[in-house]
Write a structure and sequence with these properties.
Elements (H helix, E strand, L loop, with lengths): L9 H12 L24 E7 L4 E7 L1 H7 L8 H4 L3 H15 L2 E9 L7 E10 L8 E9 L11 E6 H8 L12
Antiparallel strand pairs: 1-2, 1-5, 3-4, 3-6, 4-5
């Protein structure tokens, strides 16, 4: 099974296929190959994180309105550890570290419950970006909230991840004959 087949949320699959096409001859693609005009339909759900390798910290460079609504705070320009002080922080830290320091694409579907709020079912993808092809400088993320789901029991977490090296050998031309690739 190809990695994209694990991504059952259409906008997130579209973003992954778009990211694959932006590789500029290598993985992961550089940030300047991601055009905000191409992503305009996803902007409320998009975030871009700067990776500080020395301090192992993450700074929000862009955060759409849906992302900020989820965490109930403004994120643009703020460090993760200063902006998010809640159980969400550990959840974000773990996923961001997997993507940035282990060089993995990370997809997750989960149900989240925050005190005083209804259950939130979401799907999220994290995609590494690198200006030099080696060190991950930024993370491109997108989170989609299932607005129809407001009550009920939490579901089991489902996660999928693939390393950059595996993408380069396994996934490169996976969709050339099937699903149309984003331009």
């Amino acid at each position: 099974m190809r990695f994209a087949e694990h991504i059952d949320e259409s906008d997130l699959r579209w973003l992954y296929l778009y990211w694959l096409k932006r590789k500029a001859g290598r993985f992961p693609p550089p940030r300047d190959r991601i055009d905000p005009v191409d992503l305009r339909h996803l902007l409320p759900s998009i975030f871009i994180i700067e990776v500080d390798h020395e301090q192992e910290r993450f700074r929000y460079r862009l955060a759409g309105s849906d992302v900020e609504s989820l965490v109930l705070t403004k994120l643009h320009g703020r460090w993760l550890d200063e902006a998010v002080i809640s159980p969400l922080r550990e959840f974000f830290d773990e996923s961001f570290c997997i993507c940035a320091f282990q060089r993995k694409v990370h997809f997750r579907r989960n149900t989240l419950h925050l005190a005083g709020r209804p259950y939130i079912r979401y799907a999220r993808i994290l995609l590494p970006l690198s200006n030099d092809g080696e060190k991950i400088d930024h993370l491109l993320g997108c989170i989609k909230i299932d607005q129809r789901f407001a009550r009920g029991n939490p579901t089991a977490v489902s996660e999928s991840e693939i390393t950059i090296a595996d993408i380069a050998t396994f996934e490169l031309d996976a969709y050339s004959d099937g699903e149309p690739a984003p331009e």
